[in-house]
């Protein structure tokens, strides 16, 4: 389902309904100089006109963070705001979620989406809770950049072809805001290690040395449930079934009492079982404000943007700082260099697949691996189509040598985390 809305601030599309002094608060930043201005900025009335009339912003995500962002942007003078609500979007199908028209039939979907974004938007803002969707969007902006680089034969970057990405994320009392200039500054995938796959407690802690109420709940969820199967042999734990949660809650209380741990509640039990990280309105507000400020700074060019990553944490007191995340030389999203995959010729394809999903710097979901042999494309493994999965599954147990792969061979990998295939180079270790 496409959810692309045009926000009509005030219910009109022009600026005729402005009352006197409506934008006075904004004008103070744009029409007079100040000590924090961009050194090259000349105060004028043009920036505000650009923001009100021309600048188009794509906001991705309309959840807690996204809605807060929309309000801030609208009150800052932006009137052309498009919203894509990722809640209704199936991450496995992101390419399809942008508008496709009859004339686009037969064109690569990533190219159509790239054209759509490139021809319309000046700035993209992400307020998403999904890392996959965020990485996809990041990859899309890199794709747009590559397409426009093809136009300039000398390969010199034209700064106007860059669509900045402002990315905000929150998790409970923690949040971050960052500014990405594709091709120039660190992208989402450059710093993938900053997004840990999921918080899991060490098994030894859960099994024998619990200290937190969460450890007790995890003990029941991971170890006790499969052992006792309280609702029958085939019944797996369902976080939405109150009887299941009640059982886990009671057993967790017993476990907690044994180790003199307090704090196990029904609500916490459900939160742990369903992996709910509670949304904190104040964190969303702080991060949305930081993101909207960056949009304002970039759209007006009046101030230097954040360089380039802000961390916010109010778990215990209030802590915030910024640092410059660095580009990764062989980033799979923003560098043109294929990443090296170091494996021995006797490694199995399964090991390569495990690496692609488990490595913190790659973190793919269901990679499809293809290569070229004797001038022909060969699918080594593909999960998403059942018939192909079945046909290629035996390859997983074969060694790279048995598959006929050579040292230096390029593997093209497609995944939901990126709109384009990612190239890897096989480097044999002895
Ligand atoms: Zn990168």
From TrEMBL:
| Protein EC | 6.2.1.64
Q: Show the catalytic activity.
A: ATP + [NEDD8 protein] + [E1 NEDD8-activating enzyme]-L-cysteine = AMP + diphosphate + [E1 NEDD8-activating enzyme]-S-[NEDD8 protein]-yl-L-cysteine
Residue intervals of the E2 binding domain: 341-429
UniProt-annotated catalytic positions: 204
Q: Which InterPro entries match?
A: E2-binding (IPR014929), ThiF/MoeB/HesA (IPR045886), ThiF_NAD_FAD-bd (IPR000594), Ub_act_enz_dom_a_sf (IPR023318), Uba3_N (IPR030468), Ubiquitin-activating_enz (IPR035985), UBQ-activ_enz_E1_Cys_AS (IPR033127)
Going by the UniProt record, its keywords in alphabetical order are:
ATP-binding, Ligase, Nucleotide-binding, Ubl conjugation pathway
Pathway assignment: Protein modification; protein neddylation
Q: Does the keyword Transcription apply?
A: no
An example molecular function term from Gene Ontology annotations: ATP binding
Task: Enumerate the Gene Ontology biological process terms.
Answer: protein neddylation
What SUPFAM superfamilies does this protein's entry cite? Activating enzymes of the ubiquitin-like proteins
What superkingdom does the record give?
A: Eukaryota
Which GO CC terms are listed, alphabetically? cytoplasm; nucleus; protein-containing complex
UniProt record similarity statement: Belongs to the ubiquitin-activating E1 family. UBA3 subfamily.
Q: Could you tell me what this protein does?
A: Catalytic subunit of the dimeric E1 enzyme, which activates NEDD8.
From the Swiss-Prot or TrEMBL record, give the protein name.
NEDD8-activating enzyme E1 catalytic subunit
Q: Which gene encodes it?
A: UBA3
């Amino acid at each position: 389902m496409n959810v692309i809305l045009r926000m009509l601030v005030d219910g009109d599309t022009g600026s005729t309904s402005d009352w006197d002094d409506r934008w006075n608060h904004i004008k103070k930043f744009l029409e007079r100089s100040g000590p924090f201005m961009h050194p090259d900025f000349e105060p004028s009335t043009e920036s505000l006109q650009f923001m009100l009339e021309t600048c188009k912003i794509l906001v991705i995500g309309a959840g807690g963070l996204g809605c807060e962002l929309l309000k801030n942007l609208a009150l800052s003078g932006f009137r052309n705001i498009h919203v894509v609500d990722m809640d209704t979007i199936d991450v496995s199908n992101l390419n399809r979620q942008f508008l496709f028209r009859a004339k686009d039939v037969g064109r690569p979907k990533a190219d159509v989406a790239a054209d759509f974004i490139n021809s319309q938007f000046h700035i993209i803002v992400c307020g998403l809770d999904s890392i996959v969707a965020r990485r996809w969007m990041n990859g899309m902006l890199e794709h747009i950049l590559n397409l426009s680089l093809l136009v300039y034969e000398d390969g010199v970057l034209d700064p106007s072809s860059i669509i900045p990405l402002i990315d905000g994320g929150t998790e409970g009392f923690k949040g971050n805001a960052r500014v990405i200039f594709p091709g120039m500054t660190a992208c989402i995938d450059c710093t993938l290690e900053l997004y840990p796959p999921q918080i899991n407690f060490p098994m030894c802690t859960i099994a024998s040395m619990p200290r937190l109420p969460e450890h007790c709940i995890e003990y029941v969820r991971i170890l006790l449930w499969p052992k006792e199967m309280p609702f029958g042999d085939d019944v797996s734990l369902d976080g939405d079934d109150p009887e299941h949660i009640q059982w886990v809650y009671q057993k967790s209380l017993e476990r907690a009492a044994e180790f003199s741990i307090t704090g196990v509640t029904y609500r916490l039990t459900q939160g742990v079982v369903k992996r709910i990280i509670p949304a904190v309105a104040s964190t969303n507000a702080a991060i949305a404000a930081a993101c909207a400020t960056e949009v304002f700074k970039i759209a007006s060019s009046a101030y230097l943007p954040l360089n380039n990553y802000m961390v916010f944490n109010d778990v215990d007191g209030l802590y915030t700082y910024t640092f410059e995340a660095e580009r990764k030389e062989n980033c799979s999203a923003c560098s043109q260099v294929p990443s090296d995959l170091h494996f021995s010729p006797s490694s199995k394809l399964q090991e390569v697949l495990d690496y692609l999903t488990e490595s913190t710097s790659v973190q793919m979901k269901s990679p499809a691996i293809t290569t070229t042999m004797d001038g022909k494309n060969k699918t080594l493994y593909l999960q998403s189509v059942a018939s192909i999965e079945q046909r290629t599954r035996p390859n997983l147990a074969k060694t790279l040598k048995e598959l006929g792969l050579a040292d230096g061979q390029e593997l093209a990998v497609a995944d939901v985390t990126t709109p384009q295939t990612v190239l890897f180079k096989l480097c044999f270790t002895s």
